[in-house]
Specification:
Helix content: 40-55%
Strand content: 5-15%
Shape: globular
Radius of gyration: 17 Å
Oligomer: single chain
Length: 205
């Protein structure tokens, strides 16, 4: 997996996430976050449609470079005007962004690009202690274990239903947040992989 120093993410998410959330005007909303580079295989269009189906106080927070302005217009239409966009920060500053979200979505599409990538933003969300919903593509199930929820790719109804379930059940979100932190410590921390790699290299040396 893609390993980097995420040791501060959970603290920054807890302490600074609500501040950023308020600054973006999302204080009382149910915020579904998408963080990363906007590409067709990331499934963002499906996610926008899903959030539009949720209605109520649901909003989609897109953190990243939309590139073509037409992408932003399409997302606004699909989400029924419930999208908020902000530029992506440096990797070291992802904690507050992830902390502004109630759920982080990694929807992905069923495509070769998604099948053969390992989504680093999924691991970032786990490290920040966020509830994660991901498209069941590639190694998403292996990465998440029991620390997140999976949905079929390219299925806005299934994704909307899962998001609605988590919106309406704060206790379930809290359990996923705890599981995310435990999963990170167990499998994706820098210390874990430093020791794992050392077990291979040191005997050879």
């Amino acid at each position: 997996p893609r390993v980097r120093d995420r040791s501060r993410f959970a603290v920054e998410a807890r302490e600074q996430g609500p501040v950023l959330r308020a600054r973006l005007g999302l204080g009382a909303a149910f915020v579904v976050g998408f963080v990363g580079t906007v590409r067709p295989h990331k499934g963002l269009s499906t996610l926008a449609e899903s959030v539009g189906r949720l209605g109520g106080d649901a909003h989609l927070l897109v953190v990243g470079d939309l590139g073509d302005r037409s992408d932003g217009a399409e997302l606004a239409i699909r989400s029924r005007g419930r999208v908020v966009t902000t530029p992506g920060p440096p990797i070291a500053e992802l904690g507050p962004v992830l902390g502004a979200c109630d759920v982080v979505a990694v929807p992905q599409s069923r495509s070769s690009e998604a099948m053969y990538q390992s989504p680093a933003k999924l691991l970032d969300a786990l490290a920040a202690g966020r509830a994660v919903v991901a498209g069941d593509v590639g190694d998403a199930a292996e990465l998440l274990g029991d620390a997140g929820r999976l949905v079929p790719p390219d299925d806005p109804i299934a994704l909307a239903n899962m998001l609605a379930e988590l919106r309406d059940d704060p206790a379930a979100r809290a359990r996923l947040e705890e599981a995310a932190l435990a999963r990170t410590a167990q499998a994706f921390s820098l210390d874990h992989w430093r020791a794992t790699i050392a077990d291979v290299i040191v005997p050879v040396l």
